[in-house]
Design goal:
The chain is mainly alpha-helical. Among the domains are: 3-70, Rossmann fold (3-Layer(aba) Sandwich), CATH 3.40.50; 266-445, no CATH class. The chain has helices spanning 3-8, 35-40, 42-50, 59-69, 73-105, 120-134, 136-149, 152-166, 170-181, 194-216, 227-265, 270-280, 288-302, 306-332, 339-353, 361-366, 368-388, 409-430, 436-439, and strands at 11-15, 29-33. A two-stranded parallel ribbon has the order 1-2. The longest helix is centred in the middle third of the chain and has 39 residues, at 227-265.
Length: 445
């Protein structure tokens, strides 16, 4: 809309499931509603404007009230979440495909610790793709926080997401200081909180910044100019730092506990073990539980035994199922997904075949209640079948690109197909059919 159109409008109706910038509508009636209301109840929305019953947008406080007036609590949370997911998606797609290319062109290094960086060309793709993927969680958290608290929340969310990704804790900082002074000889390590930690950081960062804005409303008008450039970023970043340092140890403890459980299970029943580690790969897709399973698999692989290779194969196939299942669902059950979902879903074929589980994160973040259980069942089934067939993987990464070195490759592929299709059917049955108008949406659902 042009400034002239806005100026002459009686009011503004925004039917969207995503954050829309409202600053240009100051002084106008602004009515926000879900997309479904725009489709099913357009007359009611228009009548509300014509009858002067919509609130007038005046300043930050009015903007907040206007945005939330016609929305349920769940829809508000969903909209904030979608703002983060839609901004995160390009990093997942671009970085994931570049990493897949690195593995594809570095076939000569299969089975080596440097697989993916064994040539200058492969190292280039792996490095650039890895950098893009590293932005994924900070961007997710940053734009969730920005959706909640506008621009003041962006920096707070970014920092919180990065802290979640790195897994920094107070104990880690103490150990790091001791290592720097030479008091201890072993460098400390941190455990990433994964995308669940980033979600927490985004929402906490947004609502903390929003609360800070309300507190600052009581400050003198003469200090108005320093709020967005000093007070909000300084206090907000400080607060999210404290909170994430407290939350991250919980994730670390969870990770350690899961690793201990796996190590104590032994290898007497490889089928159950394969199902467990395979299913764990789909629980948080790059988070602590996923990493615990992967670390356990690589540790077993390092022992050089047949059992270790079988477990590694189950771990890898469990991480391949979620993206492939989502890609299959967007292909064969188009009426469950928007146009944007389907376009992004096709990329997950490449990511899944390349053992890049993170390709499923945008879908899991958008609809965890349906996506996660479906993928966990499919991954567990694939992991168990892989172990039952005696499939072995001497490579800790690479997905189906390393099929040439997989023991019993045909049955490994069969296990992948069965697990992926089972996950696809469960997910597609849990998802509701969308109205024809929703199916053509250009936004991520």
């Amino acid at each position: 809309m042009t400034p002239e159109e806005i100026e002459h409008a009686k009011g503004i109706i925004i039917a969207a499931d995503k954050k829309v910038a409202l600053d240009r509508f100051q002084g106008k009636q602004v009515l926000q509603a879900p997309v479904s209301d725009g489709i099913n109840k357009p007359e009611d929305l228009i009548r509300t404007i014509l009858d002067d019953k919509a609130p007038v947008l005046e300043g930050t406080a009015a903007r907040t009230e206007t945005v939330q007036q016609k929305e349920s609590a769940w829809h508000v949370i969903y909209k904030h979440l979608m703002n983060g997911v839609s901004h995160m998606l390009p990093f997942v797609v671009g970085g994931g495909i570049l990493i897949a290319i690195a593995f594809l062109i570095d076939q000569g290094s299969i089975g080596q610790s440097f697989y993916g960086t064994g040539s200058p060309a492969a190292a280039f793709f792996k490095t650039v793709g890895g950098i893009a993927m590293n932005f994924m969680l900070p961007v997710l958290a940053g734009f969730i926080a920005m959706s909640i608290a506008d621009r003041p929340g962006l920096a707070v969310g970014f920092v919180g997401g990065f802290l979640a990704q790195q897994g920094y804790t107070f104990s880690y900082l103490v150990a790091l200081a001791s290592y720097s002074r030479g008091t201890i000889t072993e460098a400390p390590t941190a455990v990433s909180a994964g995308f669940i930690g980033a979600l927490i950081a985004g929402f906490l960062g947004g609502y903390m910044t929003k609360g800070l804005e309300k507190l600052c409303d009581k400050m003198p008008d003469s200090l108005e100019g320093i709020k967005p450039v000093l007070i909000y970023p300084l206090v907000g970043v400080f607060m999210i730092g404290l909170v994430m340092m407290i939350i991250n140890p919980v994730m670390a403890a969870l990770n350690t506990g899961i690793s201990n459980v796996l190590n104590n299970m032994g290898t007497s029943n490889l089928v159950i073990m394969g199902a467990v580690v395979g299913g764990m790969m789909a629980v948080d897709m790059g988070g602590p539980i996923n990493k615990a399973s992967y670390v356990f698999g690589t540790a077993m692989l390092a022992e050089g035994t047949v059992t270790g290779k079988i477990i590694m194969a189950s771990v890898m196939i469990g991480g391949m199922v979620p993206p492939i299942a989502i890609a299959l669902s967007t292909t064969f059950f188009k009426n469950r997904w928007t146009k944007a979902d389907r376009q992004a879903g096709a990329v997950n074929y490449i990511m899944g075949l390349s053992f890049i589980t993170e390709g499923a994160i945008p879908y899991a973040a958008a609809d965890p209640g349906r996506v996660l259980p479906s993928c966990i069942v499919g991954s567990a089934l694939a992991g168990g079948l892989s172990a039952a067939f005696g499939c072995q993987s001497p490579a800790p990464h690479g997905g189906l690109w390393v099929i040439a070195v997989i023991g019993n490759p045909l049955f490994y592929f069969l296990a992948l197909v069965v697990g992926s299709f089972v996950a696809m059917f469960i997910l597609s049955m849990l998802k509701k059919k969308l109205p024809p108008e929703e199916v053509q949406k250009e936004e991520f659902a």
